[in-house]
Design a protein that fits this description.
mainly beta; PH-domain like; globular; PHb_sf
C-alpha cells in the first residue's frame, strides 16, 4: 500500500505501456485516462479511480496495487508546469486516509485528470 505517512511519490513520467500492469484489475466499463511510471513503481488514472503500483523485491515479480476511488476524495490541488519548472504536482486528500502527492515530470494529462476528479466531487 502507499506509504500515506510519507505522503510522497517518486517523480512520474508518462508511460502508456505501464497501464498494462493493471489491465486485469479493471472493471468491464472502466477506461484508462493515462499512466505514469517512476523507476519501477507507477500510477494509473482511470475514469473511476487511481491505481498505484508498488513493485517489490529484487526481481520485481511481487507487486502491491492500491486502489484509490475518486468517490473518497474530499479535496485536491493541481500545480501545472511552467516555463522553467517543467514538473507538475497533484495533491489529493482522501477521507479517512489522508493526503497523497504525485509529482510528474514532462508531459502529463493534468487537465483531463483534474476534470475527472471534479466530475466525481461536484
Amino acid at each position: 500500500m502507499i506509504d500515506f505517512d510519507n505522503k510522497g511519490f517518486f517523480k512520474l513520467k508518462q508511460d502508456s505501456d505501464y497501464a498494462d500492469k493493471v489491465k486485469d484489475l479493471l472493471l468491464d466499463d472502466e477506461q484508462i485516462i493515462d499512466s505514469y511510471k517512476s523507476m519501477r513503481d507507477g500510477v494509473v488514472f482511470t475514469d473511476k479511480r487511481i491505481i498505484a503500483v508498488n513493485v517489490q523485491g529484487i526481481t520485481g515479480s511481487k507487486k502491491d496495487f492500491t486502489s484509490l476511488p475518486y468517490k473518497n476524495i474530499v479535496a485536491y490541488s493541481v500545480e501545472t508546469s511552467g516555463t522553467f519548472d517543467l514538473d507538475s504536482e497533484l495533491e489529493i486528500y482522501f477521507s479517512a486516509v489522508g493526503k497523497v502527492k504525485f509529482e510528474f515530470t514532462g508531459k502529463s494529462s493534468m487537465l483531463e485528470i483534474s476534470k475527472t476528479i471534479s466530475n466525481h466531487l461536484l
